[in-house]
C-alpha cells in the first residue's frame, strides 16, 4: 500500500521536555532514550516497522 506524502504527514515525534519520548506514529513503537535515537540507534523502530509490514 502506497501512502501519499503530504504536508502534515508525521512519522515520528520527539519530545524532549518536560519528559523524554520518541514515538513512531506508524507502528506506535516508542522509547524514552532520546540520546540513543539521536546517535543513530534506530533498530527498534526499524524492527517495529518491518514487523508491521508482515501483517
TrEMBL record:
Q: Which SUPFAM superfamilies match?
A: Release factor
> InterPro entries from the entry?
Pep_chain_release_fac_I_sf
Question: Could you list the residue ranges forming a coiled coil in this record?
Answer: none
Q: Which residues cross the membrane?
A: none
- Name of the protein in its database record: Peptide chain release factor 2
Give the species: marine sediment metagenome
